[in-house]
Design a protein that fits this description.
mainly alpha; 2 helices; flat
Length: 75
């Protein structure tokens, strides 16, 4: 006896529904008040970028100081 497949009917798919009520993201955060303008360079912390060569030399030093394997397997 053969059975037939009947797909599920999604009647609510792509239908319009009312939106939820608005929710404040600032609940309990208090009020913030500021006056005047501040240049961006005062607000953003200074980033110190390490040159690529310095980073490579540091990694090479770390690699030299790592413990080496005590046993060497030979087949």
């Amino acid at each position: 006896m053969a059975t037939t497949f009947t797909p599920v009917d999604h009647t609510m798919h792509a239908s319009t529904v009312p939106l939820a009520t608005a929710q404040s993201l600032f609940q309990g955060s208090g009020d913030t008040v500021a006056q005047g303008e501040m240049p961006l360079w005062e607000a953003v912390p200074e980033r110190r970028e390490v040159p690529l060569g310095d980073a490579a030399r540091e990694l090479k030093k770390e690699h030299a100081n790592v413990k080496k394997a005590r046993k060497v397997w030979e087949n």
